[in-house]
Amino acid sequence: MKITINQAGSHVGETVTLGAWILNKRSSGKIAFLQLRDGTGFLQAVVVKEDIGEDLFKTAKGITQESSLYVTGVIKEDARSDFGYEMEVTNLEIIHEAVDYPITPKAHGPEFLLDNRHLWLRSKRQHAVMKIRNEVIRATYEFFNNEGFTKIDPPILTGSAPEGTSELFHTKYFEEDAFLSQSGQLYMEAAAMAHGKVFSFGPTFRAEKSKTRRHLIEFWMIEPEMAFCEHEDSLEVQENYVSYVVQSVLKNCVLDLKILGRDTEKLAKVAAPFPRISYTEAIDRLKEWGFDDIEWGDDFGAPHETAIANHFDLPVFIINYPTKIKPFYMQPNPDEEGTVKCADLIAPEGYGEIIGGSERINDLKLLEERINEHGLDPESYSYYTDLRKYGSVPHSGFGLGLERTVAWLSGVEHVRETSPFPRLLNRLYP
């Protein structure tokens, strides 16, 4: 019977066959230990010379890292293993022998590993990060489907910019100018006027020349948009969504978190509601904490966000930012002049902003004024202003960056590890 590693627990005491690759191996006298991987998990296979004979034992001892093979044996329980099972080998068949595999069990620099990203993905650590990424995606669909959202796919090629024109990738669209999408938000607003509650999940692009551990050139965003929804309602959806995703990862990625050495105690505390602090209060506190370099009206940098996050055990909302540092579409805050009804959600442990959201302007005249103030072409946004002409309603939405969220949940330092093939400044390969 052919099975996969993650099915081993259902076949204890049975003789089964696995298709696998050799992650690593060691031998001691007349016993060899093969560390197998097959994409679903990792398993130790024990090869005893007197059980399989001289020739097969010699083959087992000589097999090279990342060679592929079929391994047949009996599944046994193993309390010493994190996985809980191992295989006693009765036969093995090499499919392909790998020679001089470049990523050996030793330390390698990040540039070397990124050059070999297509192979680095096979490592136990990277496998765990991608499994957590997959769980975040799975839980995202589950949450929004359960909450009555409809998934709508916005275009990747656009003729306008939601976040301003300075970070756009320009391309030609036959005879017209076009840009790679920075966000699906404006199109999601149109979809919300048709379906009420919608979300998108897709790639976005920022031509930002940044090399920080929090930035990628191409990243994935989950962007919900809700009609008849004011800012406070949106904040509640955001904290419930993040709490749901965190608890799903804790429940379904136990082995992956353990492989990464992730301290899960802080994650276990993540449950709505989240604390909130106004932008103005955050500025005052930062000054009290010795940040003399920041003034009201400045945007926060990584050290400022980290200092604020370290003051709380949970993700924290920073609300009501100054109008002048936020995009044109955000609804003014009537309770604090010069600010808008928005929030950034800052993850704990120095991982920075993972969500940005706001209530959107629903008044046509004000939106047109904002478009002009930002020097944008009104004609390019005519579809967007149409939404305020024909049945405008209060509406809100937000965007969650997948890679930053996965970095936080995984405990990895750099977002380049949370994208299967990261696009960084000066890196398009592989």
Would you kindly provide a written description of the structure presented here, covering whatever features stand out?
With 430 residues, this protein is an alpha+beta fold. A hairpin with a 4-residue loop joins strand 3 (31-37) and strand 4 (42-48). It has helices at residues 49-52, 54-62, 110-115, 117-120, 124-146, 185-195, 231-252, 254-259, 265-268, 279-288, 302-309, 364-373, 382-389, 402-410; strands spanning 2-3, 15-28, 31-37, 42-48, 68-77, 85-96, 150-151, 157-158, 170-173, 176-180, 197-205, 218-227, 276-278, 316-319, 342-347, 352-360, 395-401. The chain folds into 2 domains: 2-96, OB fold (Dihydrolipoamide Acetyltransferase, E2P) (Beta Barrel), CATH 2.40.50.140; 117-417, Bira Bifunctional Protein, Domain 2 (BirA Bifunctional Protein, domain 2), CATH 3.30.930. The mean pLDDT is 96.
Topology:
Blueprint: E1 2-3, E2 15-28, E3 31-37, E4 42-48, H1 49-52, H2 54-62, E5 68-77, E6 85-96, H3 110-115, H4 117-120, H5 124-146, E7 150-151, E8 157-158, E9 170-173, E10 176-180, H6 185-195, E11 197-205, E12 218-227, H7 231-252, H8 254-259, H9 265-268, E13 276-278, H10 279-288, H11 302-309, E14 316-319, E15 342-347, E16 352-360, H12 364-373, H13 382-389, E17 395-401, H14 402-410
Parallel strand pairs: 1-2, 4-6, 7-11, 13-14
Antiparallel strand pairs: 2-3, 2-5, 3-4, 5-6, 8-10, 9-10, 11-12, 12-17, 14-15, 15-16, 16-17
